[in-house]
Design goal:
39% of the residues lie in helices and 17% in strands. It has 9 helices and 10 strands. The chain has helices spanning 8-47, 49-53, 113-121, 143-159, 171-182, 198-205, 211-214, 246-255, 277-283; strands at 55-56, 72-77, 83-89, 98-102, 106-107, 125-129, 164-169, 188-192, 232-237, 259-264. Helix 4 crosses helix 5 (171-182). The radius of gyration is 27 Å and the shape is elongated. It starts with 7 loop residues before the first helix and ends in a 5-residue tail after the last helix. The relative contact order is 0.10.
């Protein structure tokens, strides 16, 4: 019996078929593993987003222990029953305004004592809350809750006859701007290292994630700042790697003539006060 003859081309095809099949299975496996990893990463970010945005830590000290000798610790009840711990200092200079100070995302109020000391030493009044969920205050932080608390604290000062400057630091800029948008009777809005929106910062850090769909707390200052009627001072460091300077430039553009932008050469995210931020604030207070 004659054996069938196999050409070299047929042998090559038979040899290539197992290789191509293996390669196809390998590619499918890689895609599947990548898909699972992507879904897992997105799920982790979604479930843990508030612990990534709000980062309370430490123990809230007594203000006298950190240099605020004239400060009083006040427990201020919010409309939902949560009692916020605040540090309060009355103005020592006649006619001086009170600064409602909203701190950044990490640590606790005691970490900002040098800023608070400079405010108080200038004769200004001070009301500085520890956010709900942060050391000294119960509850859970969220965009809606923190802004609502800020408005209530503003109203408290106003009922006491205080003239109020709203000062936000980093995360606190989102709160301060929202309060200013709702309370145009504020004297001044000071934004220290602000962002256009927390969701914008997240999108820059995680461009591979659909953060606008995942994030619950957007703090979209860019959508509010044009509606703010009070004068605005914006401070940003040229070397800020936490929130890039283009965020402040965009906010200044959106706010129009209401805002002054101070781009501080060599400044970073947390050292703007050492570059003269508070002196600029005092020199640029609205004329009474």
């Amino acid at each position: 019996m004659t054996q069938p003859h196999t050409t070299d081309n047929e042998q090559q095809i038979q040899t290539d078929q197992p290789s191509r099949s293996w390669l196809k299975r390998a590619l499918i496996s890689v895609v599947a593993v990548g898909g699972v990893a992507y879904v897992a990463a997105a799920g982790y970010m979604y479930l843990n987003q508030r612990s990534l945005l709000f980062k309370p830590s430490g123990v809230l000290p007594e203000p006298q222990a950190v240099g605020l000798a004239d400060a009083t610790v006040l427990k201020v009840p919010m409309s939902d029953g949560v009692e916020l711990t605040t540090w309060s200092v009355p103005a020592s200079a006649e006619g001086a305004p009170t600064v409602l100070f909203f701190h950044g995302q990490s640590g606790n109020l005691g970490d900002r004592v040098q800023r608070l000391e400079e405010i108080v030493d200038s004769g200004f009044g001070l009301l500085a809350p520890s956010y709900r969920g942060y050391p000294g205050s119960p509850g859970e932080p969220s965009e809606q809750a923190l802004i609502s608390d800020g408005v209530e604290l503003f109203d408290l000062l106003e009922t006491q006859g205080e003239t109020v400057i709203l000062h936000g630091q980093s995360l606190g800029t989102g709160i301060a701007t929202a309060v200013a948008e709702q309370r145009p009777e504020a004297e001044l809005l000071v934004l220290e290292a602000p962002f256009t929106a927390t969701v914008d910062v997240a999108a820059e850090r995680y461009p591979w994630l659909p953060v606008s769909a995942l994030m619950k707390d957007h703090f979209a200052t860019r959508d509010l700042i044009d509606d703010v009627e009070v004068p605005i001072l914006i401070f940003h460091g040229s070397e800020d790697e936490t929130v890039p300077p283009h965020h402040s430039k965009k906010l200044a553009e959106l706010s129009g003539a209401k805002a002054q932008l101070f781009m501080i050469p060599g400044g970073t995210h947390n050292d703007l006060w050492s570059h003269g931020l508070w002196q600029e604030v005092r020199q640029n207070l609205p004329a009474n």
